[in-house]
Amino acid sequence: MPLLLDLDRTGCRWPTGVRDDEWTEGETLFCGSASISGRSYCSCHYALAYVPRSTKSPSSEREKAASLQRTFVEWTEQMAAE
After folding, report:
1. With DSSP H G I counted as helix, E B as strand and the rest as coil, what are the percentages for the chain, rounded to 5?
2. For residue 39, which phi and psi values (nearest 5 degrees)?
3. Overall average pLDDT of the 42-58 stretch
4. Cα dist from 50 to 2, 18, 21, 43, 76, whole Å
5. Is the pLDDT of residue 56 over 60?
6. Alpha-carbon gap, residue 33 to 28, rounded angstroms
7. Which of the two ends of the chain, N or C, has the fewest CB atoms closer than 10 A to its terminal CB?
């Protein structure tokens, strides 16, 4: 996962954590996946950041966002393991 300065224009800017090792002092890491054209986030993080108004109950929208977040966390763990 890249630092903000390492991202190009198409990298997702969703903060994912902090890298803290002997060379850094708590630098924030970002997703870096391909973002939606004209947006700052990839499709997964865009869905989390911008929950549309709808006739659905707020709790169902939160459940959908939580499910997307779990999916993304599982994906990042798989990517880190490779």
Report:
1. 40, 15, 45
2. -120, 165
3. 76
4. 23, 23, 33, 10, 21
5. no
6. 15
7. C
